[in-house]
Amino acid sequence: MTQRETADHRPVSQGDRIQTIDILRGVALLGILLMNIPGFAMPDNFDEVFRNDPTTINFWLNAGITILFEGKMRAMFSLIFGVGILLFMARKEKAATGRVPAGNRAIGLFFRRMGWLVLFGLLDSHVLLWFGDILYFYGVVGMIAFWFRNLKPSLLALGVPLVAIIGFVLMTLFFQNIRDKRLAYLAVQTAQQQGRTLTATQQQAIKDWQAAANEFFPNKVQAAEHTRLMKSNNYFVVASRYRQEVWDLQTKHLPLMIWDSLALMLLGMALYKWGFVTGQWSRRRYWQTLLIGYGLGLSLVTYSFYFGYQHFPTSEAFLAYLEEHPIQWTRLIYPFQRMLLVMAHASLIILLIKSKVVQGLLNRIGAVGQMAFTNYVMHTLICTFVFFGYGLNQYGEWQFYQLYFLVAAIWLLQLIVSPIWLRYFQYGPLEWVWRSLTYWQRQPMHRQV
Hints:
membrane; Bact_Transport_Assoc; 0% strand; DUF418 domain-containing protein; transmembrane; mainly alpha; DUF418; disordered N terminus
């Protein structure tokens, strides 16, 4: 191996790491579990029992998580993933490798890296059975975002409002398709009540709606059946609950799924080029971003939550609203409140880093972020073991608020273990596997003392 090839393989030293980025990634990774854990633990429509009942702790806990964190942590994680694309390429393009130009080798390494991430995502979703896996989508979207990396920051940032509009249009078309099926089904019901003989078209309308309802609006009977499958002690029975849905998301629904993550990754690149995520802005600019973000974002998301509280307490109420309203204009609020709040959250974290307050905690969070891949899959392993039928079989057994005792325990575990691990090893276990596969060569694991 040449000297340049050795440099190309060498891990990023602790001194060369950008601590702010590790900390932001760590916050996002820990925060994502707040939204993910109900998906591991709770049956269909679990929140209908408290969604419209402000006298319960579950209502207010759900409100706080929805308002402050839902969508924001995944957005922050996507931003930092976009930054990671730039950092990976910048370092690799400096190292020529014999007869292969540095840029060409860097591109090859990057796409191999993303290809392995896609495979890891397929394993996480279809073998470990986490239906909310993001690794697959990040691998796919990362390959697309790569080609935009050299654009000016202003052009990269345009992706967010463009995708917000495109996403609103696509989601509106999606729900209008469901609405059309619903209205056609209701018309057939009226015809049946009047004693008419159904035509082939009307019979097909019943099938179309039943298929849509089964996929998106499971009733109590279907929810009970899904719970029965999840509580089976047979791995393959549990797997049958989600595998087809996950595969549909990863294939036929993929064109709808990629845009949000793509826009956020591109915005992350822009924020890196502007110096935001590396802490290069002045304290005053971070404070301004924080105040504007929380001021506008919290107002918008609180209104949106209250609107849902009034109009969508149950699936039946949502369907009734859908029948009367072809366009849900309140959906336009989501992408804007989310970005306002994620920028405010990021500004708050960066201000804490600059102030040197709670530095010990921030260092631990940075270690969690440095091992984000390992820690993310650890979430899957712990939660599937606790809740799925072939593990401790706690699926559907806990109150909503009780889930967050486990979240706190997982956070504590990772905040303790991650710094200790990195004291002795250069990478997390899965980071080491990923890197070794990317370079197709076993990487040094132990840290040099």
